[in-house]
Amino acid sequence: MTTRFDLLTIGGGSGGVAGSRRAASYGAKVGLIEGGRMGGTCVLRGCVPKKLLVYGARFAEAFEDARGYGWTIEGASHDWGAMIAAKNQELDRLEGIYRSMLDRAGVTTITGHARLIDAHTVAVGDQRVAAERIMIATGGYPVRPDIPGAELGISSDEALDLTVRPDRIMIVGGGYIGVEFAGIFSTLGSTVTQVLRQDLPLRGFDEELRVALHQAMVARGVGFRARTLPTAITKAADGLHVALSDGTTVVVDQVLWATGRRPNTANLNLAAAGVAVTAAGAIAVDAWSRTSVPSIYAVGDVTDRVALTPVAIAEARAVAETLFNANATMVQHDTIATAVFSRPELGTVGLSEEAARARYGAIKVFATGFRPMQYVLAGRNERTLMKLIVDAATDRVLGAHMLGPDAAEIIQSLAVAVTAGLTKRQFDQTMALHPSAAEEFVTLRDARPSPQ
Description:
Layout: E1 2-10, H1 14-25, E2 30-34, H2 40-45, H3 47-66, H4 80-105, E3 108-111, E4 114-118, E5 121-124, E6 127-136, E7 140-142, E8 154-155, H5 156-159, E9 168-172, H6 176-187, E10 191-195, H7 207-219, E11 223-225, E12 230-236, E13 239-244, E14 249-252, E15 254-257, E16 261-263, H8 270-273, E17 296-298, H9 309-324, E18 338-340, E19 346-350, H10 353-360, E20 363-370, H11 373-376, E21 384-391, E22 397-403, H12 407-420, H13 424-428
Parallel strand pairs: 1-2, 1-6, 2-3, 6-17, 8-15, 9-10, 9-15, 10-11
Antiparallel strand pairs: 4-5, 5-6, 7-16, 12-13, 13-14, 18-19, 19-22, 20-21, 21-22
Helix pairs in contact: 1-4, 1-9, 3-4, 3-6
């Protein structure tokens, strides 16, 4: 017997759940296939648990800074295992919420692994499921390098479930995951060695912020090994011996592979339905998230466009709006705000200085660096960096960037202005909220001299 739906979603992550609920709200008969827990990478293995650990790490700094404000804190200690247990309890709660939301929306959930049979049919074990349209939202998975002993290391998935914090950890990779875990482990007391293929972390971000973040991380005790890669790992009585391409060896208790993620397409049997993929294994889509097969759509990390949870949600909802609400909706990927929950925190929206120069030529850069007020009595010397990138021809703000406390919260608000295309003059006309760090974005007066 074949079950039939108007929309069949493959993948129960943030994008798949959001798109399914939106389609069902317009009266579509929707099915969702998920082989594991509901919630996907963000809820179970990414954004949410990682941010909870970041919050846990922040207390170490708060206790240290509190002394400058007259507090006496004695006997404070951290129980890593207790934090992980509390995190797991919260994830269980969130998964239950996801399932109840789908149930209330009238979405039929099917447990198992999906394989495409043709453009309208999916196999889940011995069951056949048919649909007028299919939406693939299977996300991505962490990759490990192809070197001897790579299996001795862990991915971010396993790092979130460690029951004991390693005293010495090597983190390989300088993207979101590597930088954020470096902050978590180092702040909570681990000796961290971060291995980078390049000179600086966070390739693709504004160069000035990359330099400032690197300096701040070094000041916080993170050790960097730039322009090098692991070549082999062996296990010995005193730990894991990691051989590096520069000829040195580092001994650690744990190795974390933060070496990227790949689209999760390998077992979907895409070829049977004629779905085209890129050389990297991502599902090829157009601006409407349509694949090479008219009845099949793909959203989120599996398309390898912008691997951020809100983007996956927006893409999936856009598909539902277009197909089931007569509201043709296309997601704009130009002004997406993002944050790296590093220590210190980094937030950004729009174009970096380098990208803006390449695209517009003549730009103006407004920047400031200062010691946050909250650090003055604490005696912490870390500085905040803020930048606005402005089109010299139109005065439109092209990008806003920040490194420092509350960067994510501040940049989220500025994303409204950047997305709306506001000008630097409109920023200048905005009254400052004093005393705050955010006020600096509306009090920047003098542009830097243009490079010769």
